[in-house]
Design a protein that fits this description.
With about 120 residues, the chain is mostly beta strands. The chain contains no helices and 11 strands. It is globular. The chain starts with a strand and ends with a strand.
């Protein structure tokens, strides 16, 4: 129901856009988010947005560099990443949760983002 794509190998300072295609259900009452997991580290929250509203939340580590948005026409949640750093290297996952529940219960497969110097 969630499929992430758009990862790749880029250099530091570059930009990259990830997309998460949502299907199989109506996400009007859901929050959609992006998480990432770097090698040897725990999975961490990156950003989230309500499907039906424009308010977004960002991790401090990406605030000002990443932008999460919804594309209603494409039924996707996108993560535009600017000024990429080496430490942004990770597998990025998209996820969804009902807006009234704190647990992220729907997960897509990851997409690899590798930032090189």
């Amino acid at each position: 129901q969630l499929q992430a794509f758009g990862g790749g190998l880029v250099q530091t300072g570059s930009s990259l856009r990830l997309s998460c295609a949502a299907s199989g259900r109506t996400f009007g009452t859901y929050a959609l988010g992006w998480f990432r997991q770097a090698p040897g580290k725990e999975r961490e929250f990156v950003a989230s947005i309500l499907w039906s509203a424009s308010s977004a939340v960002y991790a401090d580590s990406v605030k000002g560099r990443f932008t999460i948005s919804r594309d209603y026409a494409k039924n996707t949640v996108d993560l535009q990443m600017y000024s990429l750093k080496l430490e942004d290297t990770a597998i990025y996952y998209c996820a969804a949760r009902h807006r009234a529940i704190s647990d992220w219960s729907i997960w897509g497969q990851g997409t690899q983002v590798t930032v090189s110097s």
